[in-house]
Structures are given as C-alpha cells and as structure tokens.
C-alpha cells in the first residue's frame, strides 16, 4: 500500500532475474514528466517511511542500484547488479509531482543461477588423444609384420633350393661311381672323359 494522495498507473509487472547476474527494471511514464525526479522504492512505499533504493541525481546507498532516464522514450531504467535472493519482492517506480507522485508496481522474482559444467568438456580431448595414440601404434606394426613375412619367405625359398641342389649332387655322384667301374683300360678312359665333359657342361 502506498501513501495517500498518490496515483497508481497500470497493472503490476513481474521481472525475473538470476542470482549473481544483472537485472533491469524498466519504468515508463507519460508525457509532461520528463524533467520530474524519478526513483525506485521497495516495499509499501509509505510516505514518510519510504525505502528509496535509488533516485535520479543522488548516489544510491547500495552501489548495486543505478538509475538512468531516457526522456525521449519516456522510460527510466533501474539496474541491479550482482542480484541476490534478498532483492526479491515488491518495488514501486515513482515519479515525483507537485501534487501527487505517480507510481507503477513492479514484482521482482529472483531464481538461483543454473550451474555451468566445464569438467566434462575438458576430459573429452584427453580421451580422444588416447584413442589416436592407440591407432598409431597399431598402424606402426603393419609394415613390421610385412617385413618379417618377406624375410621368412626368402629363407624358405633359399632352404628349398639348397635341398634340391644337394639331392641332385648326391644322385649325380652315385651315377658316376657306378659307371666308372673299369672293364678295360680303354673303355675306362673313354668313360672318364665322357663324364668329365658332362660335369663341365652342367
């Protein structure tokens, strides 16, 4: 309830803010009041016992409150910084007049600020970097495995070739021993010459 001989304009307006943030209260007034002093009081705003939070041209007791007047738009704005839960409640936008002050009712609602989450976004780059490291390790093993396979293949081929040549050498040696048994001197010389030529050819 405001003091006697006052004028209340319009219906109550609700304004909602969050703790720790700034809140703007916009108060409109009619033409002809551009040069009149403006203020914001809290509570019943009874004459003689008004709690004026901020008034144009005067420093506010609570430095979180400030007032600016746009006479062209006929709107004065009260800004509350670092909003607190205790700031919630009923306020009155007041315009001084020679006869009766003009008021408009404001209801301020204060909500708790929503918590912000930063730890989740910080852990994501670490997990992705671990995945990349594991992929690099697995890809580095591919050329190593390929090189070992090539070496083993060469060793197998060399071993097989060596065994085949060794078997052929044994067979050729046995055949020479059987055919070099002499029946007479002439035949033996001929056989020796023949086999020697074969060995040279091979």
Describe the structure.
- The chain has 202 residues and is α+β, with helices and mostly antiparallel strands.
- The protein has two domains: 7-111, Immunoglobulins (Immunoglobulin-like, Sandwich), CATH 2.60.40; 123-201.
- It has two helices and nine strands, in the order E-E-E-E-E-E-E-E-E-H-H.
- The strands form two sheets. Strands 1, 2, 4, 5, 8 and 9 form a six-stranded mixed sheet that branches. Strands 3-7-6 form a three-stranded antiparallel sheet, with no helix packed on it.
- The longest helix has 61 residues, at 119-179.
Sum this structure up briefly.
The protein is of the alpha+beta class and 202 residues long. It has helices spanning 119-179, 185-201; strands at 7-8, 13-18, 23-28, 38-46, 49-55, 65-70, 75-80, 89-95, 102-111.
Tags for this model:
202 residues; Immunoglobulin-like; 2 domains; three-stranded antiparallel β-sheet; disordered C terminus
Flag low-confidence runs: 183-202
Rg computed from alpha carbons, rounded to a whole number of angstroms: 53 Å
Approximate helicity band: 25-40%
Averaged pLDDT:
76
> What is the string of SSEs from the N terminus onward?
EEEEEEEEEHH
Rounded to the nearest angstrom, the distance between the terminal CA atoms is: 128 Å
Would you tell me the structural class of the helices and strands? Answer: alpha+beta
For the biggest sheet, the summary is: 6 strands, mixed
Number of helices: 2
The 3D shape can be described as rod-shaped
* Number of separate strands: 9
At the fold tier of CATH, the topology name of the largest domain is Immunoglobulin-like
